[in-house]
Structures are given as C-alpha cells and as structure tokens.
Amino acid sequence: MIQRAASSTFFPILLVLASILGQQLGASLGATQFDRVGPQGVVLMRLLFSAVIMVAILRPSIARLGPSQWRTIIGLGITMSGMNLMIYEAFNRIPQGVAVTIEALGPLALSVIAGRRWVGALWAALAFTGIVLLGRDGFSAGGLDPVGVLFALGAAACWAGFILMNREAGRHFPGVAGLALAMCAGTAVAAPFGIATGGTELLNPWVIAVGVGIALLSSAIPYGIETHVLRLMPASTFAMLTCLSPAMAALTAFVVLGQALVWVDLVAIGCVMLACAGAVRTRPPL
C-alpha cells in the first residue's frame, strides 16, 4: 500500500509542496527572532544547526578530498552563506513574499540564458512586468525599501551562483554529502556577522530552540526530501513546482508575521511565478 502511494505521481508532488512550505515557514519563524539576534544571527543559527544535523546523519568524509573538491565546497559555502545573509536582510526590510519573488529572478535568469530562444525574452518581459508592479509606488517612503530590494537582488545573484556550484558539487560528491560540507563552510562565513549582531542572545535557550526548528524546516528536511523525490519525478517537474516558492512565502508571512499583500502584489508575484515556470518548461538542460 505504502509502496503504491510512494510510486504515484501525487505523493512526490505532496512531498515537494511540503518541502517548499517548510522552507518558507522556517524563514517566517526566523523573522520573529530579528529583534533578538538580527537577520545575520538567524542565518548563523540556520546554517550552524543545519550543518550539525546533516553532518551527523551523512557523516561525509574529508580524508581524501582533493584541491578541486575543496574549491567546490568553499565556493558552494560562500554562495550559500551570501544567499542567506542577503535574503534575510531583505526580509527585515520588505515583505517576505516580495523578497522571495525578487530572489527568484536568479534562477529565472539562468533558465533564460540557457534557453537562448526568443521565448526567453517573453518570460523575461513577464518577470519584469511583475517587478514593475511590485515597485509601482517607487522605492522611497510609502514604497519598497530600496536597500531591501538590493539585498533581494543580491540574494538572486547568489542563488544563481549556488545552482551552478551545486551542479559542480554533484559531480564530486554522492547525494547531498557535498552540501553538508558546504554548510560547514557557509557557517564559517556567516559566523562573524551573526556573532556581531546576535551576541550573547545566541545562547538563549529559546533562541537556540527556534534556531534548531528553522534549520530543520528550512534546510535539513527539505534537502532530504529533494534527494528522495528526484528519484520519483523528473527534475523538470521538480523545478516547476519550486516556482511556487513566492506564493508559499506570501502565505507563511501572512499567517506567521501578519504581512498582508494587496491584490496588485499578488498579481505581480503571479507574473514572476509564471515567468519562472515558463522558463523552466522551455529551457534545455543547464
């Protein structure tokens, strides 16, 4: 019975949706700790506890790593840390749903560039329309915080770099072993920033408990699910489903943080989601 359910199309789709929901719920929970440890402190907890959990489970070996493998681990760790530091700084300044929508421009740009087809211009134009709608009130008082938008764009660039580095890690390491090691490198990068903003509050038992929860929801569980479902569905289908991340971000931010978006914002998010899905659907493999 269980095997029949697991082999169906519906079951892996549910797993992917649960993974996306967990990631965005973890981000929303992280925002509740900004007043205590700051965005950078939350990132440090997320990466540190994720690294501890994944290394404890996977036990990746570093005994026989060569220079190219170390370069991959360090590069992946830097892009991972940069992506998280920037997107959490964006969360501190603009609504989570808006920030994740802008961040999605990174993978979208990769897909459009890889496609090299005229239809790529259509998806780029649709995404640009969404961004214009999000910034319809300008980037000043009453509109989106320009610094928050810049942080989200920085996170988008780091996400694109992370995708490319993760592909390289897949050539050197089995499963997500490389990702576990990269999290250790990412933790080292985030540590000075997180300690500077979080200070002794990082040792608060409640903050630690929330940090472990964020790590499980945002990293450890989703990466485990991703590894499993990619054996059950095509990578293209998985990529299409991840285009729902902005909608999930808007939903969890509304429930956890009370961040309500007006209908124009929802239309804008929908434009970017559709552009991402279209770009994934029409591009060749990277």
Automatic annotation (TrEMBL):
Cellular compartments per GO CC: membrane
InterPro entries given in the database record: AA-Vitamin_Transporters, EamA_dom, EmrE-like
Domain called EamA: residue spans: 148-278
Subcellular location: Membrane
Transmembrane regions: 40-58, 70-88, 118-135, 147-164, 176-197, 203-225, 237-256, 262-280
Family: Belongs to the EamA transporter family.
Name the UniProt record assigns to this protein: Inner membrane transporter RhtA
Organism: Zhihengliuella flava
